[in-house]
Design a protein that fits this description.
Number of strands: 5
Radius of gyration: 27 Å
Shape: elongated
Structural class: alpha/beta
Strand content: 5-15%
Order of helices and strands: HHHHHHEHEHHEHHEE
Distance between the termini: 98 Å
Length: 311
Amino acid sequence: MKKKKLVGLGLGFMLALGVLPAQEVHASVNSTAVQQGEKLAYQLRGFNKLIESGDIYDVNRSYDSFSRQIQAAEKAVGRVSGSSKRKALSKKYVTPAKVARERVIYEVSQYRLMKVIGKDALLNRVTYVDSNLKKLDRLKKRAVEIKKAGKYKAVPAVMTGYLSETEKLQKTNRFAVPDLSLNHTLTSDELDSFLLLNQDRYRSKKPLMTLSEKLSYIAQMKSKDMHSTGILSQYSSKYGDVGQMIMKFGFQQPNEAGILVYKFTTASNAKAQRELWRNNASLKNVLYHPAFNYAGVGSYRSYATHLFVNI
């Protein structure tokens, strides 16, 4: 009998633990909604700063995580009891975030589509390039209509201007020069690196460059050479200086040539490279040289190389 009483008491205690008063449940739900809303508000402030900077690369990088937080906040608000409370929370947190996202949704879509077009251009997939350029035209037309109807604040001119100039390169077959004789493929990050180089040249009113797959292959070989020797240098005991190295790999003799080299404590990436060249006067002088019209980008492990030529 004693054992039965003990079991009964234990079961009753367990059941009691599983039941919370309605007031506490509502308070918990409301608290979660506010927490998610405040997290969204914090991200919104950062996202708006990125938009105003006019840097489409940074906006694109943050777009998906920002969208996920909008979904999380919207879901949390949807669990709150009371229509008036939900509306108030949504108006305070969710609506402003959605407006910011919709303000740049087409620019982000355009940037991503341009990367796809760039990859296809490097593979000499002309049919895919033409098809996606038509898709890009439809996207831009739709963007104008939606932005006008929604009365969204215009994005900075430097963002739309850079996207427009990149589009011109792609429509005139000057975005990239493929080399199908090479067993070489640029990574997504290397393509981002090239786009960032051109973006910063556009900001400083310099002509945009064409991406050379041959130069990119040479740049990767230079990065591998630095990794094998452990020496960060524009000169290579194996390949010589930048002009000698370019010609050793069969590239035509340039009128002018330049090189940027980088070493990081972790794997190289486009954003880290940009931070270095933006904060180093000598690197910027090379990048902003107005005569350069072709570029190559190549990374290996923690090393990266950018090559520039005028031909």
